[in-house]
Design goal:
Layout lengths: L9 H10 L10 H18 L3 H21 L8 H13 L14 H12 L4 H9 L2 H5 L2 H11 L1 H10 L13 H12 L4 H25 L11 H17 L4 H12 L4
Helix pairs in contact: 2-3, 4-6, 5-6, 5-11, 6-9, 6-11, 8-9, 9-11, 10-12, 11-12, 11-13, 12-13
Protein backbone atom coordinates (compact mmCIF):
# COMPACT_ATOMS: atom_id res chain seq x y z
CA UNK A 1 0.00 0.00 0.00
CA UNK A 2 1.32 3.42 -0.95
CA UNK A 3 2.44 5.55 1.99
CA UNK A 4 0.65 8.89 2.04
CA UNK A 5 3.76 10.55 3.49
CA UNK A 6 6.58 11.93 1.36
CA UNK A 7 8.51 8.90 0.06
CA UNK A 8 11.65 10.96 -0.56
CA UNK A 9 14.56 9.32 1.28
CA UNK A 10 15.01 10.66 4.76
CA UNK A 11 18.55 12.02 4.21
CA UNK A 12 17.42 13.91 1.08
CA UNK A 13 14.49 15.47 2.96
CA UNK A 14 16.89 16.54 5.69
CA UNK A 15 19.23 18.09 3.14
CA UNK A 16 16.40 20.01 1.52
CA UNK A 17 15.43 21.46 4.87
CA UNK A 18 19.07 22.19 5.68
CA UNK A 19 19.82 23.91 2.40
CA UNK A 20 16.64 26.01 2.34
CA UNK A 21 16.76 29.64 3.38
CA UNK A 22 14.52 30.56 6.30
CA UNK A 23 11.07 31.47 4.96
CA UNK A 24 10.87 34.79 6.78
CA UNK A 25 14.27 35.96 5.45
CA UNK A 26 13.39 39.65 5.73
CA UNK A 27 13.30 39.37 9.51
CA UNK A 28 16.66 37.67 10.08
CA UNK A 29 19.87 39.52 10.90
CA UNK A 30 23.16 39.59 8.97
CA UNK A 31 24.79 37.51 11.73
CA UNK A 32 22.07 34.84 11.38
CA UNK A 33 22.56 34.74 7.61
CA UNK A 34 26.33 34.37 8.07
CA UNK A 35 25.85 31.53 10.56
CA UNK A 36 23.38 29.80 8.24
CA UNK A 37 25.83 30.14 5.30
CA UNK A 38 28.66 28.55 7.31
CA UNK A 39 26.48 25.58 8.29
CA UNK A 40 25.30 25.24 4.70
CA UNK A 41 28.86 25.16 3.39
CA UNK A 42 29.92 22.53 5.91
CA UNK A 43 26.87 20.34 5.16
CA UNK A 44 27.41 20.59 1.39
CA UNK A 45 31.08 19.75 1.84
CA UNK A 46 30.14 16.55 3.69
CA UNK A 47 27.47 15.65 1.11
CA UNK A 48 29.95 16.09 -1.72
CA UNK A 49 32.60 14.04 0.11
CA UNK A 50 34.94 16.98 0.66
CA UNK A 51 35.26 15.76 4.22
CA UNK A 52 35.18 17.58 7.48
CA UNK A 53 38.84 18.53 7.37
CA UNK A 54 38.60 20.41 4.07
CA UNK A 55 35.50 22.30 5.16
CA UNK A 56 37.02 23.12 8.53
CA UNK A 57 40.27 24.23 6.93
CA UNK A 58 38.41 26.52 4.54
CA UNK A 59 36.37 27.97 7.38
CA UNK A 60 39.53 28.51 9.44
CA UNK A 61 41.27 30.29 6.55
CA UNK A 62 38.28 32.58 6.08
CA UNK A 63 38.25 33.46 9.76
CA UNK A 64 42.02 34.07 9.80
CA UNK A 65 41.66 36.37 6.79
CA UNK A 66 38.88 38.30 8.49
CA UNK A 67 40.98 38.61 11.64
CA UNK A 68 43.93 39.98 9.65
CA UNK A 69 41.70 42.56 7.96
CA UNK A 70 40.33 43.72 11.28
CA UNK A 71 43.67 43.81 13.11
CA UNK A 72 45.68 46.14 10.82
CA UNK A 73 45.99 49.46 12.68
CA UNK A 74 46.00 52.84 10.87
CA UNK A 75 49.45 54.11 9.95
CA UNK A 76 48.89 57.39 11.79
CA UNK A 77 46.66 58.35 14.67
CA UNK A 78 45.12 61.75 13.97
CA UNK A 79 44.89 63.76 17.19
CA UNK A 80 43.00 66.81 18.42
CA UNK A 81 45.54 68.93 16.50
CA UNK A 82 43.99 67.69 13.26
CA UNK A 83 40.47 68.46 14.50
CA UNK A 84 41.62 71.97 15.50
CA UNK A 85 43.14 72.49 12.05
CA UNK A 86 39.92 71.43 10.31
CA UNK A 87 37.88 73.78 12.52
CA UNK A 88 40.30 76.67 11.93
CA UNK A 89 40.39 76.19 8.15
CA UNK A 90 36.62 75.69 7.90
CA UNK A 91 36.03 78.93 9.82
CA UNK A 92 38.38 81.00 7.65
CA UNK A 93 37.25 79.51 4.31
CA UNK A 94 33.57 79.62 5.35
CA UNK A 95 32.46 82.31 2.86
CA UNK A 96 34.63 81.09 -0.02
CA UNK A 97 33.74 78.73 -2.87
CA UNK A 98 35.67 76.84 -5.52
CA UNK A 99 36.49 78.86 -8.64
CA UNK A 100 33.33 79.69 -10.65
CA UNK A 101 31.21 77.20 -8.65
CA UNK A 102 28.99 77.21 -5.56
CA UNK A 103 30.99 74.37 -3.98
CA UNK A 104 32.24 75.32 -0.47
CA UNK A 105 35.98 75.91 -0.67
CA UNK A 106 36.75 73.75 2.36
CA UNK A 107 36.19 70.64 0.23
CA UNK A 108 39.57 71.32 -1.43
CA UNK A 109 41.83 71.39 1.66
CA UNK A 110 39.93 68.42 3.07
CA UNK A 111 40.47 66.58 -0.22
CA UNK A 112 44.18 67.41 -0.09
CA UNK A 113 44.39 66.10 3.48
CA UNK A 114 42.64 62.88 2.44
CA UNK A 115 45.14 62.31 -0.36
CA UNK A 116 48.05 62.86 2.02
CA UNK A 117 46.62 60.37 4.51
CA UNK A 118 46.20 57.77 1.75
CA UNK A 119 49.79 58.42 0.62
CA UNK A 120 51.08 57.53 4.11
CA UNK A 121 52.04 61.01 5.28
CA UNK A 122 52.38 62.00 8.93
CA UNK A 123 50.07 64.26 10.93
CA UNK A 124 52.10 67.45 10.46
CA UNK A 125 51.97 66.97 6.68
CA UNK A 126 48.24 66.23 6.78
CA UNK A 127 47.56 69.30 8.93
CA UNK A 128 49.58 71.41 6.50
CA UNK A 129 47.37 70.04 3.73
CA UNK A 130 44.27 71.24 5.60
CA UNK A 131 45.82 74.70 6.11
CA UNK A 132 47.80 75.15 2.88
CA UNK A 133 45.52 77.85 1.40
CA UNK A 134 44.73 79.74 4.61
CA UNK A 135 47.51 82.39 4.40
CA UNK A 136 47.22 82.71 0.62
CA UNK A 137 43.44 83.28 0.65
CA UNK A 138 42.63 84.45 4.18
CA UNK A 139 45.02 87.19 5.27
CA UNK A 140 48.68 86.42 4.55
CA UNK A 141 51.43 86.63 7.17
CA UNK A 142 49.12 87.04 10.22
CA UNK A 143 47.60 83.64 9.40
CA UNK A 144 51.07 82.09 9.25
CA UNK A 145 51.72 83.49 12.71
CA UNK A 146 48.52 81.83 13.92
CA UNK A 147 49.56 78.52 12.35
CA UNK A 148 53.02 78.65 13.91
CA UNK A 149 51.57 79.30 17.35
CA UNK A 150 48.89 76.59 17.10
CA UNK A 151 50.70 73.86 15.16
CA UNK A 152 54.43 74.52 15.37
CA UNK A 153 57.36 75.49 13.18
CA UNK A 154 57.23 72.51 10.84
CA UNK A 155 53.58 72.99 9.83
CA UNK A 156 54.16 76.72 9.39
CA UNK A 157 57.17 76.06 7.14
CA UNK A 158 55.21 73.64 4.95
CA UNK A 159 52.28 76.04 4.53
CA UNK A 160 54.64 78.92 3.75
CA UNK A 161 56.35 76.82 1.11
CA UNK A 162 53.00 75.98 -0.51
CA UNK A 163 51.85 79.63 -0.71
CA UNK A 164 52.45 81.62 -3.90
CA UNK A 165 51.27 84.87 -2.26
CA UNK A 166 51.18 86.16 1.31
CA UNK A 167 49.48 89.51 0.81
CA UNK A 168 46.71 90.50 3.20
CA UNK A 169 44.13 91.14 0.45
CA UNK A 170 43.28 89.67 -2.96
CA UNK A 171 43.81 93.03 -4.64
CA UNK A 172 47.46 93.12 -3.54
CA UNK A 173 48.34 89.85 -5.23
CA UNK A 174 50.68 89.84 -8.23
CA UNK A 175 49.32 88.59 -11.59
CA UNK A 176 48.67 84.84 -11.75
CA UNK A 177 51.45 84.08 -14.24
CA UNK A 178 54.02 85.94 -12.15
CA UNK A 179 52.99 84.13 -8.97
CA UNK A 180 53.15 80.73 -10.65
CA UNK A 181 56.64 81.39 -12.04
CA UNK A 182 57.84 82.44 -8.57
CA UNK A 183 56.29 79.33 -7.03
CA UNK A 184 57.96 77.05 -9.58
CA UNK A 185 61.36 78.58 -8.77
CA UNK A 186 60.79 78.03 -5.05
CA UNK A 187 59.72 74.42 -5.58
CA UNK A 188 63.12 73.64 -7.11
CA UNK A 189 64.70 73.86 -3.65
CA UNK A 190 61.68 72.99 -1.52
CA UNK A 191 61.68 70.35 1.21
CA UNK A 192 60.03 66.97 0.71
CA UNK A 193 57.31 68.11 3.13
CA UNK A 194 56.39 70.99 0.81
CA UNK A 195 56.61 68.82 -2.30
CA UNK A 196 54.24 66.21 -0.85
CA UNK A 197 51.59 68.77 0.06
CA UNK A 198 52.07 70.48 -3.30
CA UNK A 199 51.61 67.15 -5.09
CA UNK A 200 48.36 66.47 -3.22
CA UNK A 201 47.17 70.04 -3.89
CA UNK A 202 47.85 69.77 -7.62
CA UNK A 203 46.34 66.29 -7.80
CA UNK A 204 43.07 67.38 -6.20
CA UNK A 205 42.86 70.44 -8.49
CA UNK A 206 43.84 68.47 -11.59
CA UNK A 207 41.19 65.82 -10.95
CA UNK A 208 38.57 68.55 -10.56
CA UNK A 209 39.61 70.10 -13.87
CA UNK A 210 39.58 66.74 -15.66
CA UNK A 211 36.11 65.92 -14.28
CA UNK A 212 34.70 69.32 -15.25
CA UNK A 213 36.17 68.97 -18.74
CA UNK A 214 34.20 65.75 -19.21
CA UNK A 215 31.01 67.47 -18.07
CA UNK A 216 31.34 71.03 -19.40
CA UNK A 217 33.80 70.70 -22.27
CA UNK A 218 36.45 73.25 -23.24
CA UNK A 219 34.44 76.24 -21.98
CA UNK A 220 35.86 75.23 -18.60
CA UNK A 221 39.07 77.07 -19.47
CA UNK A 222 37.19 80.38 -19.42
CA UNK A 223 37.16 80.17 -15.61
CA UNK A 224 40.90 80.68 -15.34
CA UNK A 225 43.18 83.70 -15.61
CA UNK A 226 45.52 81.71 -17.86
CA UNK A 227 44.74 79.99 -21.16
CA UNK A 228 44.58 76.20 -21.56
CA UNK A 229 48.12 75.82 -22.92
CA UNK A 230 49.65 77.91 -20.12
CA UNK A 231 47.84 75.87 -17.49
CA UNK A 232 49.00 72.60 -19.05
CA UNK A 233 52.60 73.88 -19.20
CA UNK A 234 52.43 74.94 -15.55
CA UNK A 235 51.14 71.56 -14.39
CA UNK A 236 53.76 69.76 -16.46
CA UNK A 237 56.54 71.84 -14.92
CA UNK A 238 55.26 71.15 -11.40
CA UNK A 239 55.04 67.45 -12.22
CA UNK A 240 58.63 67.41 -13.53
CA UNK A 241 59.92 68.94 -10.27
CA UNK A 242 57.95 66.47 -8.17
CA UNK A 243 59.17 63.51 -10.23
CA UNK A 244 62.79 64.67 -10.09
CA UNK A 245 62.54 64.72 -6.31
CA UNK A 246 61.01 61.22 -6.22
CA UNK A 247 57.69 62.14 -4.65
CA UNK A 248 55.64 59.02 -3.98
CA UNK A 249 53.92 57.46 -7.02
CA UNK A 250 50.74 57.28 -4.92
CA UNK A 251 50.45 60.99 -5.74
CA UNK A 252 52.44 61.26 -8.96
CA UNK A 253 50.76 58.48 -10.95
CA UNK A 254 47.19 59.81 -10.60
CA UNK A 255 48.49 63.35 -11.15
CA UNK A 256 49.99 62.30 -14.49
CA UNK A 257 46.69 60.70 -15.50
CA UNK A 258 44.72 63.84 -14.63
CA UNK A 259 47.11 66.15 -16.49
CA UNK A 260 46.90 63.95 -19.57
CA UNK A 261 43.13 64.55 -19.63
CA UNK A 262 43.67 68.33 -19.98
CA UNK A 263 44.35 68.00 -23.72
CA UNK A 264 41.01 66.35 -24.49
Amino acid sequence: MTNSKDETPKNERQNRRYYALPQDIASITDDQIEAWAEKLYDQMARDLNFGESAASQNSLQRKEGETMKKSIPPKIQLTDRFITAVTYATTLHRDQSRKSTDIPYICHPLGVASLLIEAGCDEDQVIAGVLHDVPEDCGGEPRLADIKQMFGDRVEAIVRGCSDSLTSTEEQKAPSKERKEKHLAELETASLDVLLVTAADKLHNARAIATDLEISGTQLWDRFNLDQQSIIEYYNKVFAILKKNEVTPKLLNPLATAIAAFRV
